[in-house]
Amino acid sequence: MKAMVLEKFGEPLVLKEVPEPKIEQGEILLRVQACGLCGTDIKIFDGHVNTVKLPRIMGHELAGEVAEIGKGVEGWKEGDHGVVHIYVTCGNCYYCRTGRENNCNRGRKRIGFEDDGGFGEYVRVPSGNLCKISKKISLEEACILSGSVATPLHGIRTQGRLKAGETAVMIGIGGLGIHTLQLAVVMGARVIAVDIAEEKLEAARRFGAEATINSSKSDFVSEIRRLTDGEGADLIAEIVSGSQLPSILEASVKALRLGGRLVLLGYQYGQLFSLDPAKIVYDEIEIVGARASVRQDLADVISLVERGKVQPVISERFPLAKANEAFVKLRNSASLGRIILTL
After folding, report:
1. Pairing, β 87-88 against β 81-84
2. How far apart are CA 171 and CA 196, in angstroms?
3. Could you tell me the sign of the dihedral formed by the alpha carbons of 315, 321, 325, 331, in that order?
4. What is the pLDDT of residue 284?
5. What are the Cα distances from residue 165, in Å, to 171, 178, 190, 191, 279?
6. Could you give the 3-state DSSP secondary structure of residue 205?
7. Interacting residues of 167 by C-beta distance below 8 A, sequence separation 6+
8. pTM of the model as a whole
9. 235: which strand partners?
């Protein structure tokens, strides 16, 4: 099969013919149709994820068609459509037993990280990691659900405990942010969108934001306070990365109400920010991270998309052979929505 292979960190992916994966009992061979790209892929490409060994076929936001079914697999047939949940876990540890399998610490692997992923024509997947989708959702839209949509759902619902009627601020309206915003609207929150690009803020209003703030033109902390009658936000979802991240985090803490929650969905390795512990104590604020999602998040997201409650947003499509061009675009892009590879 054809695949784009990462052979050396920081160097272009290589288009190669590689052996088709051989499935074992309990596994499914998936014919990949589309695979999303995200900032984590850049971290893998650059060698910042130390569990990734080379050579590696990357790609962890993927969807496709069932090509072959292994022994012992029930509920699937050839031709079914599925989207992959990337965490291959033990199923027995405390985290797996309590529905937090993304934190499994006993032999956890991730498809597209420690195992080969969707930058190839086929991938082998444990049957429990494949979520069935109806054919009314295109596979191009489906591929981004596990990352761009399930991750923010895990962030604002599980980690952030967002409730209807609360004020939620989205900082960064890109491939992750535009879906975080839609989910917050569906959950009944009053949403304020923050970005430096007017076209993204316009899109945020189309998708249900009650108010928008251009942080290149005004101080977003003061604006959030103004829009909340001086109280501050119940929840702030931080969905950016890069050199500005520490200052954004320090400012975000000041924009929370008493008892407010700051949820980190964006990150950069090694970046530190300053925080007065007294602020946490006396304001009773919470700062939490959100790493990917669990299977239930993905199942719930699929249901939301099938019912028309959330719209997957794709900004650009590249054929597999042009994956390196897609990476250049990803690094330099400030576009709305996800960049995907099509096969």
Report:
1. unpaired
2. 10
3. positive
4. 97
5. 19, 20, 6, 10, 25
6. helix
7. 189, 190, 191, 192, 227, 228, 233, 234, 235
8. 0.94
9. 168, 261
Amino acid at 291: R
C-alpha distances out from residue 241 to 10, 42, 135, 288, 291, Å: 19, 12, 35, 16, 15
Q: Does the pLDDT of residue 77 top 80, yes or no?
A: yes
One-letter identity of residue 200:
K
Residue 152 · residue 179 · CB < 8 Å: yes
Residue ranges and CATH numbers for the domains of the chain are: 2-144+312-342 (3.90.180.10), 149-289 (3.90.180.10)
Q: How many CA atoms lie within 13 A of 118 on its CB side?
A: 32
Chain-centroid distance of CA 172 in Å reads: 13
CA 85 vs CA 137, 202, 291: distances in Å: 17, 32, 13
Average pLDDT over residues 164-191: 97
CA-based R_g, the chain, Å: 20
Beta strands in the chain (DSSP E): 2-5, 14-17, 27-37, 61-69, 81-84, 87-88, 109-110, 122-126, 130-133, 167-171, 190-195, 211-214, 233-238, 256-264, 286-289, 314-319, 338-342
Q: How many other CB atoms sit within 10 Å of the CB of residue 14?
A: 14
Amino acid 256 reads: L
Which tokens go with 192?
């304020």
**DSSP secondary structure, 308-343, as one string:** TSS---EEEEEEGGGHHHHHHHHHH---SSEEEEE-
Reply yes or no on whether the pLDDT at 17 is more than 80: yes
Q: Are strands 314-319 and 338-342 parallel, antiparallel or unpaired?
A: parallel
Q: How far is CA 103 from the centre of its chain?
A: 16
Residue percentage of the chain with pLDDT more than 70? 99
Helix or strand or coil: residue 182? helix
74's tokens: 């029930």
Question: 190-195 and 87-88 as β-strands: parallel, antiparallel, unpaired?
Answer: unpaired
